[in-house]
Amino acid sequence: MDFTVPISLDMLRVAAGEIGTLEGPNNDTKYGKWIGMNYQPWCASFVSWCAAKSGNSDLFTRSASVEYHRSFLHRQFYDRDLILYSAKRDPDFEKSVVGGLIFFREGNFWSHIGIIERYDHKHQVFSTIEGNTWPGVPLISSAHGVFRRYRYLSASNFAGIAVIDYSRSGTAPQTGGMVPIGLPYDSSGSSSFPGSRYFYIGAYNNYVTLLGKMLVKAGYGSYYTVGPGPKFTSADQQACAAFQRAQGWSGSDADGIPGPSTWSRLTSIYGSGNSYTQPSFPGTQYFRVGASNQYVTMLGVQLVKAGFGKHYTVGPGPTWGEADRLNCQEFQRAQGWTGSDADGYPGPSTWQKLFQIAGSTPNISNFPGIHFFGSGANNEYVTAMGKKLIQKGYGQYYSVGAGPKWSEADRRACQAFQKAQGWTGSDADGYPGPSTWSRLFS
After folding, report:
1. CB within 8 Å of 342: residues ≥ 6 apart
2. Contact criterion met (CB below 8 Å) for 285 and 342
3. What is the rounded CA–CA span in Å between residue 283 and residue 202?
4. End-to-end CA distance of the chain, in Å?
5. DSSP symbols for 109-149
6. Can you tell me the distance from the alpha carbon of 11 to that of 386, in angstroms, rounded to the nearest whole number?
7. How far apart (Å, rounded) are the C-alpha atoms in residues 122 and 124?
8. Taking the complete model, does pTM exceed 0.90, yes or no?
9. Residues 116, 126: Cα–Cα separation, whole Å
10. Judging by beta carbons within 10 Å of its beta carbon (0-12, 13-18, 19+), is residue 154 exposed, middle or buried?
C-alpha cells in the first residue's frame, strides 16, 4: 500500500521516524520513561509522546491509558458504521482520518491504540503506526516495538477511530486540560472540576467513580444497583439530577450532568479527588508460588469484590496459592483476555482493572471466604450478611443495624439461622461458610 504523508502532519513524521524501535525487558521504553509510567503497556504513551514531539500536545491527552485517550476524543470518535457511512458520502473522508487514532478493545476493555497513516475505503483497511505491537513476521522474532500495521475494519477487536482536526493545532482544545496519568484522580489532590467531557452516557473513567462515591455519601445511593463507576450510566445521571434538584436548581442546571457548580458543591462536602489513590502495580515477583506479602491479600480482596472469589476456602492472602491464580484467571477471562494474558498471574493491566472497581457494591453470588467474618472484620460483606439475616427474620439480635463491623450480634443471628437449617456443632457456630452463604442468599 503506497501512501504519502501530508507535509503539515508532523505527528506522522515523528511516528514514522520511530518505526523499528524495540522495547527493553519488562516494557522498558523511552516513551514510558517520558510519561512517568515505565515498565507498563506503552501504546498510549507512544501516542502522547509523538503528539508532544510534533508540537500537537494541545490536540491529544497526555496519558498512558487507552481509555483516557478515547474519553478525551469522544466527540471525534467514529465507530465502524459511522466510518462506512462517512466514507461513502464524504469524498474527503479518507484524507481527514490521516493522523487520527485507531482504537481496539477486548470485551469492555480498551486494549490498544495506534496512529492512522491512511484509510483505503475500497479495501476497508487502515495503514497505521503503533507502539507496543508485533508485526507477526519471523525476522523480528516476538519482540514488541514500534511497527507499521495494516488493520482491517472487519477485525473483531476493532473499536473505532478518532479524527483529529489539525487546523486547531497550536490552540488549546475547547474541552480543557489534560487527563491525569497513573493515579485515578488528580495526583495533587485537587478538587477542581475535570471537565464535562468525562460525564456522558457510556463514558468510562475514574472521575465517574469519584462522582458516584460522593453522590452515595450525599444520600443518593438508592439509584445504584451495582455501585458507582467507572462507567457513566443512567443511574449516575439520575442520582446527580436528584442532588442538583435538592440544591434548588432546575432546567439544564439539573439535567444530571455535573458541571463546575455541582462538582464544587459535592467535593466541598463529601470529599475530593485525593480520597482514594489506586496503588501502583508492585511487580510480578510478588505473585508466584511461595510468595507471601500484602499485595497477595490486596489482589484477593479486589477479586472477591469483583465477584471472583469462589476458589477461596479460607479467604485471600497473604500467601499466594492456586486459589489466587484460579480466581485471577477467571477475572482475566471475563475481560475477554486469552493466552498469556489470562494465565492467572496478574500484570499491570489486571491490577489496574481490578482496582477500578474499588468501592463497588459486593457481589454476593459467591461466598467471599471466612477471612471476611470474625473478630476485627470490617467490610461490606458483613453488612450484606447482616441485612439478609434481618430480612430473614433475625433482626432481634441487632440493636444498631447490620455491619460493616463484625459483632457478637452478627454471630448470634447467623448461628440462629444455621440452627434453623437443622445444623449443629461446628456447622452452627455463627460463622458463615459456603453452605450458610448459599442458603442465606438463595
Report:
1. 329, 332, 333
2. no
3. 32
4. 60
5. EEEEEEEEEEEETTTTEEEEEEEEE----GGGTT--EEEEE
6. 58
7. 6
8. no
9. 7
10. exposed
Please name the amino acid found at residue 283. Answer: G
CA 246 to chain centroid, in Å, comes to 30
Q: What is the mean pLDDT of each run of 10 residues along the chain (442 residues)?
A: 42 85 89 93 95 88 93 90 88 87 92 92 89 63 76 90 75 28 33 70 73 80 76 89 86 90 78 50 85 84 76 79 91 84 90 65 68 73 88 88 83 95 92 89 82
Residue 107 gets the label, from left (phi > 0), alpha (psi -120 to 50) or beta, of left
The dihedral over CA atoms of 179, 180, 184, 188, expressed in degrees to the nearest 10, equals -140
d(CA 96, CA 92): 6
Residues 417, 401: Cα–Cα separation, whole Å: 17
Q: 423 CB contacts (<8 Å, ≥6 apart)?
A: none
Phi, psi (5° rounding) for residue 158? -70, 130
- 503506497: which residue's cell? 2
For 292, the grid coordinates are 507471601
Q: Which residue is associated with the grid cell 503528539?
A: 51
Q: Cα 389 from chain centroid?
A: 33
DSSP 250-292: -GGGGSS---HHHHHHHHHHH--GGG--PPPP--GGGSSTT-B
Cell of 369: 471466604
Q: What is the 3-state secondary structure (H, E, C) of 290-308?
A: CCECHHHHHHHHHHHHCCC
CA distance 54 to 429: 68
